[in-house]
Amino acid sequence: TSAKLWGGRFTGAVDPLMDAFNASIHFDKRMYEADIRGSQAYAKALAKRGIITEQESTTLVTGLEKVLDEWRNNTFEIKPADEDIHTANERRLGEYVGSVAGKLHTGRSRNDQVATDLRIWTRDETRKLLGHLKQLIGAFVERAEKEVDVLMPGYTHLQRAQPIRWSHWLLSYAWSLQADALRLSQIIDRLNVLPLGSGALAGNPFNIDREFVAQELGFNGVIQNSLYGVSDRDFVAEVLFWASVTMVHISRLSEDLIIYSSGEFGFVTLADAYSTGSSLMPQKKNPDSCELLRGKSGRVFGQLSGFLMTYKGLPSTYNKDLQEDKEPLFDAVETLAGSLQITAGVISTLKIHPEKMQQNLSIDMLATDLAEYLVRKGVPFRETHHIAGAAVRIAEERNTTMSNLSLSDFKQLHVAFEEDVSAVWDFEKSIENRSSLGGTSRATVVAQIEKLRNWLLE
Ligand code: ARG
């Protein structure tokens, strides 16, 4: 018979190519700790039901701790027959504790084992991502607080639209990322339930106390159906979707910064730490960090769609296709960990050029304010929009700005115009007028900073 863990009914050898094709150890080894913690909890649960003795349980638990130490010290030696992390750890445990290692897998299957390992790993790693995400939000909030007096042009269609505060732009990304943080917390709560005790598919025959196992492993509940327990990977899809949406935000931010750092805009300069030069053109300083962030977003979207293709159309319960859930997840988690930290670095070290932003504020951006001026004099907005449009046209025809039109020019457009129309040509005033909740006025920007700060402290 074959030497494999599952080799009892096999007589022929497996094609070595198939062996390599089937093996997942080279990527699932990163779940070594989750796998060992799961096994330790399971050993205790077996003893609790008298399936093994307390002494055997202790032997298994301490033996597993030694295996864990090897992984941590980088001394664990992967053998050719170690198909995946589960078989590798069990093989090594046997070398430490002898034949009692063979009792560990009683009533358990790699199907409920791998589902458990992956949930533990995902929970622990996404909690770290949540930490990185909060740090990034903190970087935005800190800048927004310091630079609240800087004004810049706001854009729609990448055309100059209305003046805004630089901090208002910064905070727009902080709010997107806060939504990502809330989404991730919910995903973590949902995925943190225990599949172990589902067996291969039909359930555990030894009346294992699953609530006990869940408590041991820090889960907040127990999956209620064993078929569902071994087949569900919705949490992988959810994390990949979360990662994708978060990367959309990072990618759009990067695009803004790439544009704002161009010579034509010149609003910001990236720190040297997050830029690179050209091998040919000595003058170049390229925003590579932002380009990589924008580029890596594509990679994460690919992991989401790739995984969904694997996941769809599987018949009930465990199928080996599910082994393909890990690499997309691992890659996305790694990409997000890097991207969130790099983005925080870019944001906190960026140099801004307020005078360049100011130079790009143009009087035509106050056309809406001109219309609003008349609204405050009682003229219906639809009329005022036309009148302000006419003022824009006249200024354009005369090759000047609206602020240079005379009071009689304005009086010709509407009788409600008075001397005080000259007060419209003030960018800061335009900004301060937008003081309803969520607007770009100083007070409403400061209120946003306060809200986000309080949330970060929660
Ligand atoms: N390496 C496998 C995976 O990642 C473990 C489960 C294998 N189970 C099985 N019955 N072949 O999904």
From TrEMBL:
According to its UniProt record, which protein family does this protein belong to?
Belongs to the lyase 1 family. Argininosuccinate lyase subfamily.
Q: Where is the Argininosuccinate lyase C-terminal domain?
A: 365-432
Q: What Gene Ontology terms for biological process does this UniProt record contain?
A: L-arginine biosynthetic process via ornithine
Entry-linked PANTHER family: ARGININOSUCCINATE LYASE (PTHR43814)
Describe the reaction catalysed, as an equation.
2-(N(omega)-L-arginino)succinate = fumarate + L-arginine
| Sample GO molecular function, one term | argininosuccinate lyase activity
Q: Which GO terms describe its cellular component?
A: cytosol
Q: Which domain of life is it from?
A: Eukaryota
Query: If you read the UniProt record, what top EC class would you report for this enzyme, in one word?
Result: lyase
State the EC number(s): 4.3.2.1
Q: Which InterPro entries match?
A: Arg_succ_lyase_C (IPR029419), Argininosuccinate_lyase (IPR009049), Fumarase/histidase_N (IPR024083), Fumarate_lyase_CS (IPR020557), Fumarate_lyase_fam (IPR000362), Fumarate_lyase_N (IPR022761), L-Aspartase-like (IPR008948)
Q: Which residues form the Fumarate lyase N-terminal domain?
A: 8-302
The organism of origin for this protein: Ambispora leptoticha
Q: Which pathway does it serve? A: Amino-acid biosynthesis; L-arginine biosynthesis; L-arginine from L-ornithine and carbamoyl phosphate: step 3/3
Any idea what this protein is called?
A: argininosuccinate lyase
Q: What PROSITE patterns is this protein classified in?
A: FUMARATE_LYASES
